[in-house]
């Protein structure tokens, strides 16, 4: 997905969009001095006043609060996965510090999203009960490091594509869009490092899961073989020395909310 193309499409439909975005961007810049006068804990409340100025509905009719709660559910899943994994008897070796940092990153995301939702007069969704074995499909997820790493990769890759998939629904509110992109980039860093730990490249090739990934994780990667970007088949405009596979590595594709919810539901206890 090309964020700049989204902006252009919004501009065509609403020529005054930049004026609205600029006013909120200026308010965000003002946090530098504002933060010196109030406690950090009060910042989400101040942000809430800006969140309420959003259009309320994204380009697909999905509200900003719906997107925030959707993201919160994914962050709950990731945080609990790493927390439970680190509390198990798995031997993470030299990578334990990394996964502890990831766990703490996910908790920070949970806390931020919860505060943002409440500041917008919304109600955060409750944390689900998770079954990371997915009903037995990954029965050894907390006793076999390779299974844990495979699920970690799948969750992080899902998170990257999930945030990207909601950009169009957040473009009307630059404060929230900025925060979502900040989380998105961190999830991408997590994903790249986990893939490296597993001996893979840091990016996705075509719609391949990568060596050692269970077949059940394939929905995370479906659609990644796309070469059409912004209406242009990029594979037709690159040098002959560049393969189609390399073209797909250069672009990461979004996942829609329904697909992500379907993936997440495998690990949520009914």
Name a few traits of the molecule.
single chain, 270 residues, mainly alpha, two-stranded antiparallel ribbon, 11 helices, globular, Ferritin-like, Ferritin-like_SF, Ferritin-like domain-containing protein
Structural write-up:
With 270 residues, the protein is mainly alpha-helical. It has one domain (3-28, 38-265). Helices cover 55% and strands 1% of the residues. The chain is built from eleven helices and two strands; from the N terminus they run H-H-H-H-H-H-H-H-H-E-E-H-H. It has helices at 3-13, 17-29, 31-34, 43-51, 64-87, 96-119, 145-165, 167-170, 174-197, 244-249, 257-265, and strands spanning 228-229, 232-233. It has a two-stranded antiparallel sheet. The chain starts with a helix and ends in a 5-residue tail after the last helix. InterPro entries: Ferritin-like, Ferritin-like_SF. This is Ferritin-like domain-containing protein. It comes from Pontibacter rugosus.
SSE blueprint:
Blueprint lengths: L2 H11 L3 H13 L1 H4 L8 H9 L12 H24 L8 H24 L25 H21 L1 H4 L3 H24 L30 E2 L2 E2 L10 H6 L7 H9 L5
Helix pairs in contact: 4-6, 5-6, 5-7, 7-9
């Amino acid at each position: 997905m090309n964020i700049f193309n989204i902006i252009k499409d919004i501009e065509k439909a609403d020529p005054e969009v930049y004026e609205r975005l600029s006013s909120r961007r200026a308010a965000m810049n003002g946090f530098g001095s504002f933060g010196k006068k109030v406690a950090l804990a009060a910042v989400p409340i101040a942000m809430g006043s800006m969140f309420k100025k959003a259009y309320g509905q994204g380009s697909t009719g999905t509200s900003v609060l719906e997107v925030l709660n959707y993201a919160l559910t994914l962050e709950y899943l990731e945080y609990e996965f790493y927390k439970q994994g680190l509390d198990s008897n798995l031997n993470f070796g030299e990578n334990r510090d990394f996964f502890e940092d990831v766990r703490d990153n996910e908790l920070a995301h949970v806390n931020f999203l919860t505060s943002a939702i409440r500041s917008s007069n919304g109600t955060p969704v409750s944390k689900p009960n998770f079954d990371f074995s997915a009903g037995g499909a990954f029965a050894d997820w907390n006793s076999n490091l390779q299974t844990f790493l495979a699920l970690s990769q799948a969750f992080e890759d899902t998170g990257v594509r999930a945030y990207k998939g909601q950009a169009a629904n957040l473009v009307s509110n630059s404060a929230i869009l900025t925060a979502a992109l900040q989380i998105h980039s961190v999830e991408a860093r997590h994903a790249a490092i986990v893939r490296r730990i597993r001996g893979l490249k840091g990016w996705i090739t075509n719609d391949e899961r990568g060596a050692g990934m269970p077949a059940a994780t394939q929905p995370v990667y479906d659609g990644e073989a796309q070469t059409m970007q912004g209406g242009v088949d990029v594979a037709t405009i690159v040098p002959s020395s560049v393969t189609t596979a390399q073209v797909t590595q250069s672009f990461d594709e979004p996942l829609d909310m329904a697909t992500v919810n379907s993936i997440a539901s495998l690990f949520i206890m009914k």
